[in-house]
Design brief:
Elements: E1 3-9, E2 13-20, E3 25-32, H1 39-52, E4 62-66, E5 70-71, E6 76-77, H2 91-99, E7 103-107, H3 108-119, E8 127-133, E9 137-143, E10 146-147, H4 178-182, H5 184-195, H6 202-210, H7 214-238, E11 242-246, H8 253-267, E12 276-279, H9 285-296
Parallel strand pairs: 1-4, 4-7, 8-11, 11-12
Antiparallel strand pairs: 1-2, 2-3, 5-6, 8-9, 9-10
Helix pairs in contact: 3-9, 5-6, 5-7, 6-7, 7-8
């Protein structure tokens, strides 16, 4: 049975797991990532954790999921906001050198999408688009079992897609960027503007909508339409067999998901209306998807 090492490296914690081709986690180690102590300390800590995994030398390869865009060809992060000093650091090369096995690095949303495409909700489909709707909005395009990362590591990143250029300027993203209009942060911002400090997070707005509050329902309706515009834009470029949707906002999917799909059908060409929408299936897509990276490269 072939096994792989998956590493979920974040600004707070790092997890290392031994995973089968079918996505079964056989062993796992978790520690603080020590991100503020610099790359050398983080890498040494991570490699110590690998050596704690039973039978790690028998694994076929290593995959690492990291926050931010990645040069997937050279295995380096292009931006490292949560991991100071890791910009252009040769993560993959160092792991290969120390463990004598192929190593790969990709964005954490991309590896989650890869997991869902290979062993999750999209298993067996040629083109799967994974979307995570949480604090922000992220995405991953998986074609024939491989993540499409693009020249700059930004392929699949959908947060900056403009859904309406007549909105207000919020931050560095485009005016009307979908993340600024339909993410958890966006719904919280809009909810606070209407209801004040009783809104702690997006879930409070969804609860008010479920209770029949017309203002909250209007926020949800706008969100559902904005997300549908985003999905229609993606569909007209990638035409996936399935959208797999994950992220914290899906805890309230009963409030908005059916509306998103209905709006989507009105925004795409008629033959595309049968595009599938499924909720993400895996509990640990990040670490499983990291372990899938060597598989996607033929190992």
């Amino acid at each position: 049975m072939k096994t792989y090492l998956g590493i979920d490296l974040g600004g707070t914690n790092v997890r290392v797991a031994k995973v089968t081709r079918d996505g079964i986690v056989l062993a796992e180690v978790k520690r603080p990532s020590l991100a503020q102590e610099g790359p050398r300390r983080v890498m040494d800590n991570m490699m110590e954790m690998i050596r704690e995994i039973p039978g790690y030398t028998e694994c076929e390869g290593i995959g690492v999921g990291v926050p931010g865009p990645v040069d997937t060809i050279n295995g380096k992060m292009l931006m490292a906001t949560n991991l100071p000093g890791f910009e252009l650091y040769p993560i993959a090369a160092e792991l290969t050198q120390n463990f004598n096995m192929p190593a790969y690095v990709d964005n954490d949303a991309n590896v989650a999408g890869l997991a869902e495409a290979l062993v999750g909700a999209g298993k067996g489909l040629p083109v799967v688009y994974y979307v995570t709707i949480s604090t922000g909005i992220g995405g991953a395009l998986v074609v024939d079992g491989k993540v499409v990362s693009g020249k700059h590591g930004h392929a699949g990143e959908i947060a900056n897609i403009i859904i309406d250029r007549n909105r207000e300027k919020i931050n560095h993203l485009n005016i009307g960027a979908v993340e600024n209009e339909a993410s958890g942060v966006a719904i919280t911002r809009k909810g606070k503007a209407l209801f004040g400090d009783q809104i702690r997070h997006a879930g409070d707005v969804f609860d008010l909508a479920k209770q029949g509050n017309p203002q909250a329902q209007a926020v949800v309706d706008d969100m559902a339409y904005d997300l549908a515009v985003m999905f229609s834009v993606i569909a007209h470029v990638a035409d996936p067999w399935m959208f797999v949707i994950g992220g914290g906002m899906m805890q309230s999917k009963d409030v908005f998901l059916d509306k998103v799909v209905a709006n989507f059908k009105n925004l795409v060409h008629v033959p595309m209306r049968d595009t599938l929408f499924e909720v993400a299936k895996l509990e640990e897509p990040g670490i499983i998807g990291a372990a899938m990276l060597p598989i996607s490269h033929g190992n």
